[in-house]
Amino acid sequence: MPIATLEELRELYPPVLERARLKTLSKLDTHCRAFIEKSPFLTLSTQGPDGADVTPRGDAPGFVHILDDNTIAIPDWRGNNRLDSLTNILANPAVGLLFFIPGALETLRLNGAAHITADSEITHRWTTNNNHPATALIITVHEAFLHCGKALIRSKLWHDDYKSKIPPYGQMLKDQIQVDDTAEAMQASIEEAYKTKLY
Q: Rounded to the nearest 5 degrees, what angle is found at the Cα of 43, between the Cα atoms of 40 and 44?
């Protein structure tokens, strides 16, 4: 039987540690700011009419700009143009973010509300190869807290233990969708886009 109530769920776990309860901040402190400034990668979770979604966002450390103690800005660089996250945010501004720093076992979690802007005063904060993102996300931070490293320790994320080969992306995509292109042609197109269309 599925667990249906909070009482049923809580019976399976010990009480929350006091330090875990107290660590949730309502604004970015010195440590949160430093973590964001050093992070080259985050995941962004959104919720829209068709369900939940999570997407990766990454660039050189510092690509997420801290505007004030409760506001950050994230560029929306070129992608696949599905606009899944942006579409969800139009319907529901609630977002969750998880920041990673390679080699660090801990992560930083932010929860808040996002809106999309095409204001050039914001989008022109980022310039690469004379390009600017079409839009940026402005996120109002409601909660911020550091997350312990147990998941990254268990996964050995920053070690070579579980490194493995997978088929080229072009081959996997070819197997999943009906197109006339060969897997080799699709892979060549993908690799060219990696070289010329990151920004």
A: 125
